[in-house]
Amino acid sequence: MYEQYWQLKEKPFQNTPDPRYLYLSGQHEDALMKLSYAVTQNMGCGMLVGVFGCGKTLLANALLNDLGRERVRFAFITSPASLEAPELLRAVVRGLSPQALPDKKSDLLADPLLEKLNTILVDNARDGKENIVIIDETHTIEDPRSFEQLRQILNFQSENKFLLTLLLFGQPELKEKVENNKPLDQRVAMRCFLSPLGEDDVDKYIRHRLKVAGRPESAEPIFDKEALKAIVKYSAGIPRRVNTLCDLVLMTGFAQKAQKAEPELISSVIKDFNLS
Ligand SMILES: Nc1ncnc2c1ncn2[C@@H]1O[C@H](COP(=O)(O)OP(=O)(O)O)[C@@H](O)[C@H]1O
Ligand SMILES: [Mg+2]
Fold this sequence. Notes:
By secondary structure, this protein is an alpha/beta fold. It contains 11 helices and 7 strands. The strands form 2 sheets. The protein has a 5-stranded parallel sheet with strand order 2-3-6-1-7, sandwiched between helices. It has a two-stranded antiparallel sheet with strand order 4-5. Strand 4 (157-158) and strand 5 (161-162) form a beta hairpin. Residues 15-18, 21-23, 25, 28, 50, 52-58, 239-240, 243 line the site of adenosine-5'-diphosphate.
């Protein structure tokens, strides 16, 4: 659409968790390092907390890439709230095992499932694969039994080593939810946080995404200092909001044949598209 006009090979501000676009702000780098450490040092359970749109799901994908997808077996559960407690366990088993499970719920009850999981974990470990369970949007889980089930899977150990790493990702209310299950809370051995980006990071974040999308570094900046201020003000430093705004600004700028994104263009986009 507007790619050619802005000298881009692809759209730079898509709201998808594509690790190619990862901008390593200090805090993203810190979180990635800690999560990776939790896995490689066999710490059992790690937690990543941050507001909506700050990069948690993206970091999960980047982590799996960094660890090497061929070196790990992982279950990546993206909507845990839609799964009742036994279903959650089934999803974990399905992710970690290449073999299919019977489809009907009644065919596998919770206890045999735990047994099955144990076998899978041991087999994977024997094959030299790290077992990782990532629960995204963990804060959306309402059923305390699901948290209990997550705690249970941490019991799988062999020779005093955890057979899997459980990573819980979620919005700030996750902290309190996990605290309600004391034994689980006590198992969280690594805690990481993501907060919104500061102005300097938003600037670097935008430049980084434009560069990955193919904009030549020799080209004039699209967003100048004033434009950046307007973006920071609207987005409050949340990458998802930066993306939404910048995409619409590029589109509108193209329609108006603008040479760059003036602050007036940014304010008019916020108003016209009812961004709030
Ligand atoms: N550090 C980052 N580098 C590049 N893009 C990012 C970064 N953090 C967030 N994003 C982008 O912002 C959007 C929202 O990120 P996401 O990981 O879905 O947030 P969350 O899971 O915390 O709600 C995605 O398009 C993602 O690619
Ligand atoms: Mg997410």
